[in-house]
Amino acid sequence: MGAPIVLDCDTGSDDAVAILCAALHPAVDLLGVCTVWGNHDVRNTTDNTLRVLDLVGAGEVPVVPGLNGPFRGRATPLPSGRADLPPTLDLPEPTSRPSTGHAPDWLADLVLAHPEPVTVVATGPLSNLAAAVEARPDLVDRVGQVVCLAGTHEEPGVLPLVERNVWCDPEAAAFVLQAGFSNLTLVGMDATFSAPLDAADVAVLRGLGTPAAALAARLVAERIAWYADDEAMGPLGAAPLHDPMALAHVLDPAMFATRPASVVVDLDDGPTYGRTIVDLAPRAPALHFALRADHDRYLSWLCEVLGKVQGEVLGGVLGGSSTR
Description:
Blueprint: E1 3-9, H1 13-24, E2 28-35, H2 42-55, E3 63-65, H3 103-113, E4 119-122, H4 127-135, E5 146-149, H5 164-168, H6 170-177, E6 184-187, H7 189-193, E7 197-198, H8 199-206, H9 211-226, E8 238-239, H10 244-251, E9 256-265, E10 276-279, E11 287-293, H11 295-306
Parallel strand pairs: 1-2, 1-4, 2-3, 4-5, 5-6, 6-11
Antiparallel strand pairs: 7-8, 9-10, 9-11
Helix pairs in contact: 1-2, 1-9, 1-10, 3-4, 4-6, 8-9
């Protein structure tokens, strides 16, 4: 069995690729996927998660719906969902069904009962994780690694220095950052925008010939088209594939340049609400912050995982070196 991991996702296109990688990687024991609001309402993110798992024959993985709104409310209103993204992935209707539990409770129970420390990889708003910690603070000392796709240091966001997952639920992000996790990493926009994927990378993924790689290639191509008007990505004909990087950091941390840091979330009502204030020279570092990622290593890692069908063993070095 691989490393015990739980994903916590607001499943849209890049979450979908992260789920594929977690389901297919032989070094991962995917214990379940919690779903949360963010890209869309939790009913949509749950449905999308089931569709992705069914595609690669992993319908037995528990999918547990969670919060459908912010952990403690917001200083400013934010509608759930994104009008610019379709709420449902273009995949067959799921045959598997979600679990009947509630994600924060399920996550806390799992972490506290599991014989090994469980790694939590969060790629959406941190509402579920914050709610789990508030209800069961003892899970903080029992969890293994926590890696969140969250925050930005210098890369622009939906607002200046405001990354979207944090912006959706700043109160939850602040609560998680202050919870006292001993092994916490933020993989934010600085890292994901440093290693975008382009049309040549799409062709490489498509050429692998597996259902997972074909879906990933299609989703990346759609993301490139969506980013065509972006000031940085448009001229490159490229797009960041954010969420799988959080999982990649667990399995191949050498892919990233990280720094010890402390991070504070701006909770003041105003234009900087949700901004992540990153100190890379703190007196008492509380976490690690990923600043850059290696594009070639990332693409190679995606190819190694997505190029295999469920149950196969990866060739080459797990989670790292290129075999091409």
